Amino acid sequence: MFAKVRNASMVFLCAMFLAACSSSGTFTMKQALIEPINNQKTVSIWVKSDKVPESEKEDAKKACSSLQEKLYARLVSEGLFKSSVIYPNKGDYSLEVDVLGVRLVSNTARLWLGVMAGASGIETNVLLRDETGKVLAEFNADGSSATHPMSSESGSDNAVNELATEIAQALKQR
């Protein structure tokens, strides 16, 4: 009996450790892409944080800047668009990323509190519009870092990277 409990406990602890070692992200479509994206066109990227609570404004500013940089390169490198520009520059498409919530865990907190510090995370609502302003797709996307302090994916940059990946994946949905 004791051996079964010990084995079950070890399996549970290993599962918790492994789950804490990787970053992740998700997206949920509100409106699927209604027409294919012309990958020979330009996208204007606008990452904003108007809806973030005041207590998260400083973290949101950092997250928005980092996300904008990641999307700038990612959307072109994955073949979704020919080129990208940053709002207020105009493109054939407009990608509006509205940050709804941010939680960035510092390296100091991660070292002192370990897994108890939790994951860095970013939650967004995303709209893709054509040049006439028509909404082509709308979805929620989020990204979070690993929680384990010894994981190579525990930094807040990993949460942003996961979010950029999810946005690109959602735009590939047809």
TrEMBL record:
Region forming the signal peptide: 1-20
Annotated keywords: Lipoprotein, Signal
Domain of life: Bacteria
A Pfam family matched in the record: DUF4410
InterPro entries xrefs: DUF4410
Record-given protein name: Lipoprotein, putative
Lineage, opening ranks: Bacteria, Pseudomonadati, Thermodesulfobacteriota, Desulfuromonadia, Geobacterales
